[in-house]
Every structure is written in C-alpha cells, then in structure tokens.
Amino acid sequence: MTVRPRVAVINDYLRIAPSMADWKRVEDRARIDFLHEPFQDEDSAADTLRPFEVLCLMRERLPLTRSLIERLPNLKCVITTGTGNRSIDFEAAEEAGVTVCATAPGEAWLATAELAWGLVLAAARRIPQEDRAVRAGKWQTSLGIALHGKTLGLVGLGGVGTHMARYGRAFGMEVLAWSRRLDEDTALEHGVRRVGLEELLRSSDVVSVHMVLSDQTRGLIGKEELGLMKPGAFLVNTSRGPLVDEQALLAALRAKAIAGAALDVFDEEPLSADHSFLGLDNVVLSPHVGGFTDDVYREWYAGTVEDILGYLDGEPLRVLSTAIPRVR
Fold first, then answer.
1. At what angle do helices 108-124 and 294-312 cross, to 10 degrees?
2. Region 6-107+293-320: CATH code
C-alpha cells in the first residue's frame, strides 16, 4: 500500500485556510493537516512538524532556521506565501535537499499601504482612544491633528512606500522620502522630495517606515533617530518590528518625546499579553495584518495548492534559491 505524503499548512491563525482554496486536488493525493496555533518554541515546532514532507508557511510566522531544518528529516518541500521569505535559511534548505517555492505575490503591498494609512489616521485623530472613551460613557476626551498641510516622511520608497506617497499627496501633505538607494529621478516620478534621513526625521509630522529587514537596517530607528523627531510627530511601522529599537521607542512614548506611534509589527509575534505597549495610551496596535486581506489570502492559498501539486508531479513551481531569494 502506497503511503501518501503528509502536508502541513501551518499558522492558520484565523482557521480559514480550508475555505480559501480548492484543496480537494491535493487531498486526493496527500494527507493535509491544517495547524492553527503558533509554536511556542523550536522544540514544539520540531516535534509537531517532524512527520511532514511538505510545509506550507504563512509568510514569516515560523522562522525556518538551519537548526529547525536539521530536525525535520522527512521535509522535502517548503511553500511560502508571497514572493519570498527572509526567515528561511536557504543554504540549509539546499544542503538538506529541500525545495523552496513561492506563490503569486497577491496585492499584499497595496493592502499593507492601505493598513498603514489607516494607522496614520487612527494615530493622528486618536480614533481607537475615542472609541474606547465612547464605550466607557465619555464624550470628546482629546484633540487630534489634521494631516492637510503637514509633512509625511517615508523611510523607504518601495512597493508600499510609493502607495503611501500617493495617499499623502491626496491628503494635501508634503511628502519626503529617504532610502540608501533612492535616486532623484525615482523621487520625482513619485512626487516626493528626496532628503537625508536626519532631515526627514526632523521635518516630518508623520514618519512611516517601509524598509526590508536586514543586518544593515536592523535598529535603523533607534534612540538617536527618535530624538530627532518633533515632539508632536507620530511614528508608523508596518514593515518589521526590529527596524525600530523597541526599547528606545517605549522610552520615547513614555516620556512623551513624540506624540505617539502606530504599530502593526513587533520584535516578537504574537505580542505577549504583558507587553509594555499595552499599557500606553499613545500607541495604536494591530496584530501584523497589513498584507492580509480576503483577496490576498485567496490568491496565496490558491498558489499554495498549485505549488503542492507541482511538487507531487515532480515539477515544482516558482522555486526560490540562495541565488534567487525572491520571485518577481
């Protein structure tokens, strides 16, 4: 009797993956397990995932490190939603003979930009705080700021940042942008003014971070950078938590050195129930939902099904490697 390959679809926090795609074609050829809860540590991940031949990741919710890969002897294929995944050790996967595949990109960049702009509005007008106040029987407890005529500073002008630039201009804001590789022609194309990081931080009323996390960008916004910001300015981060020094940000928020922050990403996720951010009234929090919408999920999971079938057919799709870490 032929043993069917085992497939794990992991970190389905919302428990909706089964309804997001036609899995029947896979179920005819393999056994699928949908795993919903985050793993507490690498030991629990290794123990749970050891039997599986195919792992289907939801973005970067589970870092696939060398040590974890080495503890998964049955693993042959990894499928990550999106066009790439910087939490996978590609060299370790290649050495272990594990094929890594991506899905179609979906509209995650656009979805993230929309969420980021929602956080800008929420922070500027204190929408979550006023919502809580109304529910507690209080009326008009604080004043927000208008965005028209203010300055938006974009730390990064890639896929999300260019959408943010358009939103900022639509709200009548001057838009500044900085990144190490930003040139004048690109800045002009998107209607922004290219400046140095220091000038951007000093001049902006809203600073929104849109950078890829790497060794070079980790801690990009630290104590010194936060100290350059206006006392009335807001920091928004929808990219990756470690781009901003979390302890430095907490100190700035506690001291009211800046007006507030709006965060969708954190150093460790999910955010712990006793995290210091939860006790602050000048921070708006969302649970890393920037790129996650119904449309994006459906495209990602449909791509996951295609990738599983491609692997089972011996013709893997959208293969990633150490040389080509992303699909364009």
1. 150
2. 3.40.50.720
Catalytic: 288? yes
In this prediction, residue 273 carries a pLDDT of 95
pLDDT classification of 107: cutoffs 50, 70, 90: confident
Tell me if residue 269 is catalytic: yes
Cα 198 to Cα 89: distance, rounded to the nearest angstrom = 34
Options 269, 275, 298, 318, the catalytic residue: 269
CB–CB of 237/265 below 8 Å? yes
> Do the first three CATH levels of 6-107+293-320 and 108-285 match, i.e. the same topology?
yes
Residue 155 · residue 211 · CB < 8 Å = yes
184 is known as an active-site residue: no
Q: Which CATH superfamily groups domain 108-285?
A: NAD(P)-binding Rossmann-like Domain (3.40.50.720)
Cα 233 to Cα 290: distance, rounded to the nearest angstrom: 22
Query: Which is catalytic among the residues 210, 288, 299, 306?
Result: 288
pLDDT on residue 286: 98
User: Rounded to two decimals, what is the model's pTM?
Assistant: 0.91
pLDDT of 141 strictly over 60: yes
Domain spans, the chain: 6-107+293-320, 108-285
Quickly state the pLDDT bin for 321 (edges 50, 70, 90): confident
